[in-house]
Amino acid sequence: MKFKNYLLLITAVVMALVLAACGGSGDSSEDAAAGESASGASSEASEEDTELDGSVVIDGSGTVYPLMARLAEEYMTNEQPQVSVEVSRAGTSAGFERFLAEDGTDFNDASRPIKDEELAKAEELGFEPLEMKMALDGLTIVINPENDWAAELTEQEVKDIFLADSGITTWSDVNPEWPDEEITKVGPNENHGTYEFFYENILEEQDIDPNANLQQEYSTLVNLVAEDKNAIGFFGFGYYDSNQDKLEAVDVDFGEGPVEPSLETIAEDGPYANFTRPVFTYLNPDMAKKKAQVYDYAVYVMNHVNEFAGETGFAPIPEEEVQAQLEEIEALN
């Protein structure tokens, strides 16, 4: 009887140990599963937790402004609503002054390439600006809609109208059959890359007529031409394109017949090539490394710039150029 009781006791102990072992294994599996679930949730939350905040500060070209402002609007609306992208338009040269200052802007839009002296200033500040080519623009010569005589001009006639020493003051000086009326010449002032492009590339660094009315605001230039039958002006295609109800574009003859500025003719090797130029934004790479929102916005710009170029008056750049620039930006991260 005692032996039987001893066997029963041994059996009970073994069963208890087995049950304990099974219970422990079950608890361990549940704990592991819970751990995996928590880890998965954490990973998922980490992937989704990409909301950024802070600001991105941009200044520079009035020509590039409509395109950059459109990109900024889309970014803040659809990508990062907590990020404030501030886009100003002091002009290319004035913008570079802000960009190349202590605590300068994150980007500078430019309707001309950065100059050697500006690169030297950036070097003094300890950084090398990253050039981001955004689109192609066609410098457009505009006249009042009531002007029915100068709808076509040769490239040389455009130059002569604006040159200081050409002696051109009236329309009849250009063509004796045209009105003997004084020409009102208008354009952007020296703060703008468009002025510098016109002076350097079209006038070949010859002085512009000192009587030309040079203005800071493009809206002012639009109104000056729209309100004066004898006015002629120059600026980027986008400002003409968005004001076609007020202005007429001059078809320019570069030697093979008049060419109308359009998104199709504005190309580096197209028929309007003599008046075509790339436009840029320049990124301070140090800001992209320090501020996640600046890096993120730079990537967004190059991913979407061709999407909005046409609707803001610019011809898009080739996709391979976009991808090459994206790689440069992504290398900063």
Give a verbal description of the structure.
The protein is of the alpha/beta class. The protein has 2 domains: 54-136 and 279-330, D-Maltodextrin-Binding Protein, domain 2, CATH 3.40.190; 137-276, 3-Layer(aba) Sandwich (D-Maltodextrin-Binding Protein, domain 2). Helices cover 46% and strands 19% of the residues. The chain contains 12 helices and 12 strands. It has helices spanning 2-48, 65-79, 92-99, 116-125, 155-162, 171-174, 193-202, 218-226, 237-241, 285-290, 292-309, 319-330, and strands at residues 54-60, 83-87, 107-110, 130-143, 152-154, 184-188, 213-215, 231-236, 248-249, 251-253, 258-259, 276-283. The strands form 2 sheets. Strands 1, 2, 3, 4, 6, 7, 8, 9 and 12 form a 9-stranded mixed β-sheet that branches. Strands 5-10-11 form a 3-stranded mixed β-sheet. It is elongated and about 65 Å long. The N and C termini lie far apart (81 Å). Mean pLDDT is 88; it is low at 1-48.
Short précis:
With 333 residues, the protein is α/β, with parallel strands linked by helices. Helices cover 46% and strands 19% of the residues. Strands 1, 2, 3, 4, 6, 7, 8, 9 and 12 form a nine-stranded mixed sheet that branches. A three-stranded mixed sheet has the order 5-10-11.
Which oligomerization state do the chains in this entry correspond to?
single chain
Number of domains: 2
Task: List the uncertain runs.
Answer: 1-48
CATH architecture of the largest domain: 3-Layer(aba) Sandwich
Strand content: 15-25%
Helix/strand/pairing category: alpha/beta
CATH superfamily of the largest domain: Periplasmic binding protein-like II
Biggest β-sheet: count, sense, barrel? 9 strands, mixed
CATH topology of the largest domain: D-Maltodextrin-Binding Protein, domain 2
How widely separated are the two ends? 81 Å
How many runs of DSSP E, i.e. beta strands? 12
